[in-house]
Amino acid sequence: MPGKEDIKPAKACYEHIGGKLGELLMKAFIEKDWIAKETLTSKHFYITDLGEKEFAKLGVDVSEIPIR
Questions:
Q1: Does the pLDDT value for residue 7 go beyond 80?
Q2: Domain boundaries defined on the chain
Q3: Residue 55: helix, strand or coil by DSSP?
Q4: What digits encode the pLDDT tens for the residues 10-23?
Q5: Which residues have CB under 8 Å from 21's CB, separation 6+?
Q6: Could you count the other beta carbons within 10 Å of the beta carbon of residue 24?
Q7: How far lies 31's CA from each of 17, 35, 53, in Å?
Q8: How would you classify residue 26: left for phi > 0, otherwise alpha for psi between -120 and 50, otherwise beta?
Q9: How far, in Å, CA of 8 to CA of 5, rounded?
Q10: Angle at Cα 15 formed by Cα 23 and Cα 6, nearest 5°?
C-alpha cells in the first residue's frame, strides 16, 4: 500500500483530473451547487444551471455537456 508521501496531488486519468486536486474540485463544485447527483444514490452527476453560469465565468464552455 502506498504511503502518504507516494500520493500525487493530481493526475490525469482518461483526460480527467484525479488525485487530491480532483477530489477537492469535486467537493467544491458540489458545495457550490455547480454539480449535483442525479439522485441521492446515483453515481452520476449533472451540471446545474448555476454551474453552467459559473463555469462560463471561468471561461469553461460546458455547452457540449448535457446539463440535465
A1: no
A2: 33-68
A3: helix
A4: 666 667 788 889 89
A5: 9, 10
A6: 13
A7: 18, 8, 16
A8: alpha
A9: 8
A10: 50
pLDDT-based confidence at residue 55 (cuts at 50, 70, 90): very high
- Model confidence at 3, pLDDT cuts 50, 70, 90, reads low
20: Cβ contacts below 8 Å, ≥ 6 apart: 7, 8, 9, 10
The residue assigned the cell 444551471 is 49
CB atoms within 10 A of CB 51: 22
What are the pLDDT digits (tens) for 57-68?
999 999 887 665
Of 56, 20, 50, nearest to 32 by C-alpha is 50
